[in-house]
Amino acid sequence: MDYAEYFTNRPTDEITRDLIGRPLTFNNRTEKLGGYIVEAEAYMGKLDRAAHSYGGRRSPSNEGLYRTGGTIYIYAQRQYFFFDVACQKENEPQGVLIRAIDPVWGIDTMVKNRNGKSGVLLTNGPAKMMQAFGIHNKNWNLHFLSDSPFIIDLDNNHKRIAQEIIADKRVGINQSDPVWANKKLRFYVAGNPYVSDMKKRDCAYSNGWA
To answer: Model pTM?
Structure first.
């Protein structure tokens, strides 16, 4: 299955859940950096009050959401950068935010990129993950995945299986709209220490992998 088909062939929340356990890597021209996706959030488009495209808002800064599924959408908040992938057909602005990975490849380089931060602090949040990759700009925004240094491995033989995937409310969503704030559109590996805000007491044996 190619990226265009994968990111358009079912509802965005189902795509997001299916991404859990898939390898996400970034080639920095010297080596491969990355790990297994352990946390991701779905954003459901024009009706979703938490989505950047809510109400049909469209601007150069969120144009990536309006491109065809499989297009990279990188956005910035202050000095931090976040990695999303557009879902659905062109002009149906939905997407998935990759929030955290369980690191596997290029860990030493990622630690250097994070100024020595290691362990769970390496990649247990969306901005931390991008810092670990050494990404401090939006250069890859609007590129299709297959035309970029990012790879999301869609081969099911390479996917890690979680003992349990939790569906929960998204992080940091404005409670002024409790309906969307509480929708269970964040998916994560139960007990994985790299999930953002995972408490040490809740961490599972083998990081929650089957």
So the answer is: 0.97
